[in-house]
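re the bet — no i am not wrong, look at it urself. input seq straight from the record:
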Amino acid sequence: MSRSRQRGVTLVEMIVVVALVALAAAISFPAVTSGIDSLRMRQACDTIVSVLNQCLQRADRQQTPVELTLSLRDNALYVRGAGPGVEKRIPMPDGVTIAAILPPSPIGGEAMRHVLLVPGAAAPRVGVLLVNRKGQRRIVSVNPITGAPVVETPPPGAFPLGAPR
């Protein structure tokens, strides 16, 4: 009498496969989250550059002042134009924080800054220091000579993370 062999996987084989999959996921997780944080920082920089460009162009094209408000408290930008319904709130992506408004106020403790963009006037000297969960920092500012927004990486130690906002 011959018995037919049963086919399938044993419990030990299944545990080994699950352990290998869990190990691969644990090894790759930090790299994936790091990449997501970098993408969110880039998105925030691109958003601020776009908003600054739109505000400067709107002021020149429509020959009306545009108010840009930078808020540390709300972690957002606000744009207010001269016409009705021209009001927009632009929040920062999750994990990206507005750490400082540049240049720093001489009186300190500034949680909000209003910038008025006037047609035909020089570009304002204003910038935003962004920080993400990984500690990456970027400064988005307007070049006062060209009037174009630029993104820079500040030198290490230039803006201590524990500095007052």
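see?? The beta strands are 66-71, 76-80, 87-91, 96-102, 112-117, 127-132, 137-142, 149-152. told u. also The longest strand covers residues 96-102. so pay up
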